[in-house]
């Protein structure tokens, strides 16, 4: 008997069971994504502190790039588009840094740290994707990432973003 001939009550039970299983799978994926991402982000912070207090180290830059690439990949798998976008745009900065298209300085480190902090906040609270103030902060950060090579990042935007990230992390 095809699905079209199945009793509506039976179909309803099957669909409810399927939806429940799908929701369980989604929650499981998000939980795994959160755990794995936070672990990567913890390691990233350590690498960025090393970069902040040392000269440019190609190996560390490659490791940081791979970390953001990993986050981008698992974010895509977990349907976390905003995290994926932040990671992708951060990868672009790191790629340009590796290829000598931009110079390494503390502004670069600050932008990378901001990416880590934004992704970390999203991993801790997925509902932030719906928060207007948080999205405004992300929008400024993404503009900083996109405009980094063609223009200088606005010092005002960087200060604004750093202040708001400080507030978010200390709430």
Describe the secondary-structure layout:
Elements: H1 8-52, H2 58-77, H3 81-98, H4 106-124, H5 132-147, H6 155-169
How would you characterize the overall build of this protein?
- There is one protein chain.
- This protein is mainly alpha-helical.
- The protein has six helices and no strands.
- Helix 3 packs antiparallel against helix 4 and helix 4 runs parallel beside helix 6.
- Helices cover 78% and strands 0% of the residues.
- The N and C termini lie far apart (57 Å).
- The longest helix is centred in the first third of the chain and has 45 residues.
In short:
78% of the residues lie in helices and 0% in strands. With 171 residues, the protein is mainly alpha-helical.
Shape label: globular
Count of β-strands: 0
Major sheet characteristics: none
Mean pLDDT: 80
Features:
171 residues, 0% strand, mainly alpha
């Amino acid at each position: 008997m095809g699905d079209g001939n199945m009793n509506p009550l039976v179909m309803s039970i099957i669909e409810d069971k399927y939806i429940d299983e799908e929701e369980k799978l989604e929650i499981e994926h998000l939980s795994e994504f959160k755990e794995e991402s936070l672990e990567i982000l913890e390691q990233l912070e350590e690498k960025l502190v090393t970069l902040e207090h040392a000269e440019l180290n190609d190996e560390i830059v490659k490791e940081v790039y791979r970390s953001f690439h990993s986050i981008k990949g698992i974010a895509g798998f977990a349907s976390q588009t905003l995290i994926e976008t932040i990671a992708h745009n951060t990868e672009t900065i790191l790629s340009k840094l590796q290829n000598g298209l931009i110079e390494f300085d503390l502004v670069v480190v600050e932008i990378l740290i901001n990416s880590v902090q934004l992704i970390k906040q999203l991993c801790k609270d997925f509902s932030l994707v719906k928060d207007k103030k948080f999205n405004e902060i992300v929008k400024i950060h993404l503009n900083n990432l996109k405009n980094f090579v063609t223009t200088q990042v606005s010092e005002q935007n960087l200060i604004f973003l750093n202040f708001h990230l400080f507030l978010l992390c200390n709430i």
